[in-house]
Every structure is written in C-alpha cells, then in structure tokens.
Give the backbone structure.
Amino acid sequence: MIRQTGLIICILFALACSKTGNTPPTPGEPGNPDNPGNPDNNPSVTITTVSPDAAESGQVTITGTGFNSTANLNVVNFGGLAATIRSAGTTQLVVDLPAGLLQGDHDVTVIAHNKVATKVKAFHLIGWAVHNYAGTGAYGNADGPVATASFQWPGGLAIDKSGNLYVTDLHKIRKITPQGVVSTVAGANGRGSIDANGENARFNTVTSIVLDAAGNMYVADQMNFTIRRITPAGDVTTIAGKAGEYGRTDGIGVNARFSAPYGLAIDAAGTHLYVGDHANDVIRKIDLATGMVTTIAGNGQSASIDGKGLQAGIPGPGSMAFDKDGNLFITEKGGGKVRKMTPDGTVTTIGGDLSVNTMPTHVAIDDDKNIYVAYSGMGKIKKYTPAGVESSFAGNNTGSGPEEGAAQGVVITRPEGIVITKDNNGKQIFYITDAYNKKIKRIVKE
C-alpha cells in the first residue's frame, strides 16, 4: 500500500510540472534567448549601406540588420581603426570617423551580439595622396617624358604662369612642361661658372630658384657663392657675388660677397630679391634695378634669437617665401626652426623641431596663408596654420613604407623643394622633390 501511494505522488508531481511551464520552451516561444521575435537577441548582422561612402571628415551612417540598440555594445571599425558610435538602433549606427584614418579605401566592420559583418572597401577617406610624377629613380641626366627622364639631385622648385615646373638639379636647371616633358634649360653635367646661353652656361650646386613676373629666373649658385639670372631666352648672367670668392660684403653686383647662398624669394613688386645667405647666418636683399646688395636681418651668429633686423639670430637660413601680407617666412636649416620676418624687419619663431638634424629646407604658402615646410632630415612635410598650429602633411618619417599612397603613410627620404599650384578646376596641387630618390612627387587630394 505504501509503494502504491508513492507512485501516485510521483505521477501527480510530474503532471504538475508540465502544467507550470518548467519544461524548456521551444524556439519562438516567449523566454527563448534565441527568439527571433526579439531584435536584440543575437540576430544575423549585415551591413547594407555606408553613407556617405566617401568623405574627408565628419559622421557616417551605417544601415543594416542585427545591430545592438545599446551603442557601447557594438564595435565599428574602419580599416581596423575603431570609430566612436554616436547613436545606435537595430538597423542604424551613426559614428564619427576614427582619428588617424589614412586617405584611401577602407573595409567597414560591425560587431554586435558576437557576430561580425564586413563590407569590403565600403568607405573612401578623401585626403592627400602622393604619386611619383617624374624621374625613374636612377641617377642620370636623361631628358624626355617624365616616366623615363632621370635626375641627379633634384632640389629647389618653381612654377610659372603657364604651368611649367622648374627644378634645380645639381649643376643644372631642368624644365617639366604641363604635358610631362623634361628638358634642360641651362647648365651641364660638369661644374663651373660660365655666363652663357642654355647648356653652355656652368653652375656649381644650384639650390633654389624663383621667377619674376617677366619670366626671368633667379638661382642661388651655392658653391660659386653667386646669384645668377636666366632670361626666358636662356641667357645666364651673374648679378651678384663673384665666383670662387666667399665672404660677407655688401656692395653692388660683383663687389658683393656671399657664403653658400641657399634660398631665394622675390617681393610682390618684383623689385627686390631676398637671399638666405646660409653660411653667413644672415638675410640679404638685392635691388634688382641697381644690383645693390645689403644685409637686412641676422647678426651673423649661430644662435637662434628673435629680434629686429640685424639684432635677430638666424643660423643657417634656408629657403624663403612671402605671404600675401608681405611677411617673409624663412626656414632655418642651422637651427631646425621656421621663422617669420614682418615688413618692419621683426623676426619671430613660429615653430620647428629645434634641431639642426631636421634640416627644414624649402617653404611654400597657400592662398589661405598656411605654411608648408620640407624637413629634409626628417623625411616629412609639415603644415603650419596662420595661427602657428603644426601638423604633419606628408611623409611617415620611418624610412620604410610605400613611395605612393596616403600622404602621411608614404616614405619621402629627402624632401627638398616644394611648390603649390592649382589645376583648371581650382584644385590645389603640390609638387615636391625627393632628392635622395631622384624623383619629383605630386600630391593631390582624392
């Protein structure tokens, strides 16, 4: 009798359990963690669209399915870099682009509910990209199409109103037409100092070049210690200094003396040529009408000192450029700085890496008065806003990496010259020389 009573109790208990719902629910019933009726419970994750699919900065909206409506429970990556999620829904995520994302195409990945969806090359970051423009990379003097032309040590750059690019190339001046044809304007393979026409002229390490409104070119013939002029017809003359004689003497024409002049700039009126007299640690000015050379800034000492005119210290001045307001910006090769000289002669420091090893060489200024400086020793181009905020523009400063691609990811071993121009659509274009690799680079936004 006791055994029968126990059996009845067990049967009744089992029946009670089945009626209270303690058995596992079937898929689709309430309480099932994989219930497809609950959108936040581990559904499939997909990416349908990325909008905009190309941008320079800002926010991007990702649409799809299976996202988590709690923002921090999603992970969004662009090219492997995490984006900040601003808002989240099961079918839409709004994110900020990651800091440090380089120009180019990037995969977009969303991780939610432990599931992953990737859309390949779904987003293009618009930015500056570097391309090889001229030169094979082999040491040489071959003229011809940019793809087969060769250079020895491309340095300073200038561009005329017709879009012709001029390059100082050791003892020569080369020209690249808008059609991409390289020719020799003046000078030859051998060094020397001869005033003559075109390739009959001789130079000794030309470092900088600047053009006036009439198309005359002025070059710093560094190791001849002279300043030379090349007319549009190719006639070369010496306008200041005497070949083979260095010094620091003010005077007219050949009576003046320089010591390794490096940089040049011409004022807006086209009346005066400014010279970075590198080994003398001073800035000189040449009156182009009279040939008179005067020293206008620098105390001749190797210490960097802010001050006015001859009280300032400008060790190893490099290249120079004027902005729209008549301020002269000077690269200080001997001190690693970028200096500014106002029209009244006051010299101040706007930035730099404060080391002679960084070697800021050439400088260019855009229409918005942003300043771009080639740091030859660092393998970088840096940008300074009018307020003096410094940022990296091109070159990764690592010594390894691609030659072409996103501007901040490429290798530019020894950047020297830099010029800024615009295409027919007003799109800004940079040309720089990579002296060590014997190439001219083109930087455009794309």
Observations:
- Residues 1-40 have pLDDT under 50 and may be disordered.
- The first helix runs from residue 2 to 19.
- The helical segments are 2-19.
